[in-house]
Every structure is written in C-alpha cells, then in structure tokens.
UniProtKB/TrEMBL annotation:
It comes from Mastacembelus armatus. Keywords: Autophagy, Mitochondrion, Signal, Transit peptide. It comes from the Eukaryota. One of its GO terms (biological process) is mitophagy. It holds the Pfam family NIPSNAP. Protein involved in mitophagy. Accumulates on the mitochondria surface in response to mitochondrial depolarization and acts as a 'eat me' signal by recruiting proteins involved in selective autophagy. GO terms for cellular component: mitochondrial matrix. Residues 1-22 form the signal peptide. InterPro entries: Dimeric_a/b-barrel (IPR011008), NIPSNAP (IPR012577), NipSnap_domain (IPR051557). Residues 169-266 form the NIPSNAP domain. It is found in: Mitochondrion matrix. This is Nipsnap homolog 1 (C. elegans). Belongs to the NipSnap family.
Length: 268
C-alpha cells in the first residue's frame, strides 16, 4: 500500500512538472506567477508636471580647499552674465556651499525652460562662447572632481522660486530601488501636505540622466534648531508615520547635506 501511494504521488508530481514546464502560460505556473500590469506611459510623464516643460540640471563640484573663495567669486560672475543675457534659455535656481556633508563642495541647480531643446541650444551657444570657454579652463584649475544629473520636478512639489533669507538648506537625496519611482511618487503626493505649513518645502526632483532612480528633496529652514522642530512636528500629525513606513523599504541608501547659499544665489 505504501508503495502504491508513493507511485501515485510520483505520477502526480510528474504531471505537475510537465504542465508547468510546457509553457510559460501553463495553468500550473499561472497559479504562482505574479502578473504585472503593463505601464501605458513612461514614469517621467506620469510623475512630472504637465503644465511646464522645465528641465533641471544639478551640479556637484568638489573644490580644492584653498580655492573655495575664488571659485565662488568666479562662478557668481558667470551666473550673473548668463542671467542678464536673454539669448541663453537657462537660469540659476540656487547655488550653495555644503556646510555639513561632503566638505569644500558647491551645488548648483539650473533650470532650462523649454526642456531638452533649451538645454541643447544653451550648450551649443556656450561651446561657441570664447569667454565662457576661458572661464571653464580657469574653473578646472580649482576643481578636484565634478558630476551632474538631469532632473525633472515632481508634479506635486512646489516649483523652486527665489526667496529671501537668511536660510539654511537641506538636500535629502534618496537612491531608490529600480522600479519603485511610481510607488515613491504616490506616497509623497500625500506626504508633502504634512511638510508645507512652515513654507519649508522648496522643490522635489527625480533624475533622468546620470545616476538613475535618484530623488532630491530640497528644504529651507531658518537654522538647525528650526529644522529639528519642524521635523519633530511632522511626526505629531496623523498619517505622516504611515508615509515614512511605506517609503523606507523603497530606499537603497540616502544622504543629507546642509547647505549655505552663496551670495549670488536666488534662493537665500
């Protein structure tokens, strides 16, 4: 009897294996395989603002410590000229030096109104501008390294606009697991309402070119104590803890920079 039962069980397992291996659409495999609905649009189109065609560029420049002051002076002069020249479809959103985080670092965010065509037009004109090329040569002598990313802004965040100071700024950067950007956006579309009472939310961006699945949240505070108080207040609001709980598993790693605006920065 035991032998007959073993034979029957072996035959059943054989049939199951045959069905499951015969086709990816076999009835047995379909019981266990999770089906993912196909997306009808790119994530960038689902998450970014439809009413604008803004493209952003963020630059991270690591500067030789002895050159930081000269670098800031040179960068401010070039930014001013580009702002005044209407022939260039770009503008500086903000410029900072990192206070806590990676030291001797400058961070710049540029806006290109008109998207990729505006970026291409601007780069073409700059590459034919002898004065700008000389600036780049001079700047290169002051740098240790540099990197950049092209970004889009989340539809549910504020557009970063000039503001008076004095303020300190925090850039919180999240490196997400691939495929989780939509889920991140869905949670933060609700979470952002908990962080706007004190006007601290400046801008939210996600990468398009460069390191991918990267999110940057930019916040403004009067000082470090104001930052602490504002963040603690958020935890007292019903619903904030749930948003944190559901977004943490989406993150591979994260970092925080506390930044001081340069004298020429529109965000003070």
């Amino acid at each position: 009897k035991t032998h007959r039962s073993f034979v029957k069980l072996s035959f059943i397992l054989f049939l199951c294996r045959s069905f499951s291996e015969s086709s990816d659409k076999g009835w047995f495999r379909s019981l266990f395989v999770h089906k993912v609905d196909a997306r009808k649009d790119a994530h960038s189109n689902l998450l970014s603002k439809k009413e604008t065609s803004n493209l952003y560029k963020i630059q991270f420049h690591n500067i030789k410590p002895e050159c930081l002051e000269a670098y800031n002076t040179l960068e401010a002069e070039v930014q001013k000229r580009l702002h005044q020249d209407q022939d260039y479809p770009c503008e500086v959103v903000g410029s900072w030096n990192t206070w806590y985080g990676e030291q001797d670092q400058a961070v710049h965010i540029w806006r290109y109104r008109g998207g990729y065509p505006a970026l291409t037009e601007c780069l073409t004109k700059l590459n034919n501008n002898k004065e700008y090329l000389e600036f780049r040569k001079e700047r290169a002598k002051m740098l240790i390294s540099r990197r950049n990313q092209l970004l889009l802004e989340f539809s549910f965040w504020n557009e970063p606009l000039p503001r008076p100071g004095p303020n300190i700024y925090e850039m919180r950067t999240y490196y997400l697991k691939p495929g989780t950007m939509i889920e991140w956006g869905n949670h933060w579309a609700r979470a952002i309402k908990y962080r706007q009472e004190n006007n601290e939310a400046v801008g939210g961006f996600f990468s398009q070119i460069g390191d991918l699945y990267v999110v940057h949240h930019l916040w403004a505070y009067e000082n470090l104590q104001s930052r602490e108080d504002t963040r603690n207040t958020a935890w007292q609001k019903e619903g904030w803890d749930a948003n944190v709980y559901y977004t943490v598993p989406l993150i591979r790693s994260m970092e925080s920079r506390i930044m001081i605006p340069t004298k020429s920065s529109p965000l003070q």
